[in-house]
Amino acid sequence: IEVTDWLTVYHLPAYTPDLNPVEGIWSALRRTAHANTVFATPEDLVRSLRTGLKKIQYRSHIVDGCLAATGLRP
């Protein structure tokens, strides 16, 4: 790393949920689609996760907000 002038390396802590936009997506799912929900089977959980993620996929402002919350994107 030291011998390359074109490479910039940032050493991050092992676990940084504040810098991970995926944590924001999971948080949004827990607050909305999965709030106060009990799943009878693992298949029900998977089906609900897929539906919730598909809804978020088409709402770009949610994804943009998760990226902006990390501070890694202007």
How is this structure best described in words?
- There is one protein chain.
- The protein is mainly α and 74 residues long.
- The chain contains three helices and no strands.
- It has one domain.
- Helix 1 (21-31) crosses helix 3.
- The longest helix has 16 residues, at 42-57.
- It is elongated.
- 3% of the residues are buried.
- The model has no long low-confidence stretch (mean pLDDT 87).
Strand and helix map with partners:
Elements: H1 21-31, H2 42-57, H3 60-70
Number of structural domains: 1
Helix % is 40-55%
Unreliable spans: none
H/E series, N to C?
Answer: HHH
End-to-end separation in angstroms reads: 27 Å
Mind summarizing the main beta sheet? none
Shape: elongated
Q: How many strands appear in the DSSP assignment?
A: 0
Could you give a short description of this structure?
The protein is mostly helical and 74 residues long. It has helices at residues 21-31, 42-57, 60-70.
Which structural traits does this protein have?
74 residues; mainly alpha; 3 helices
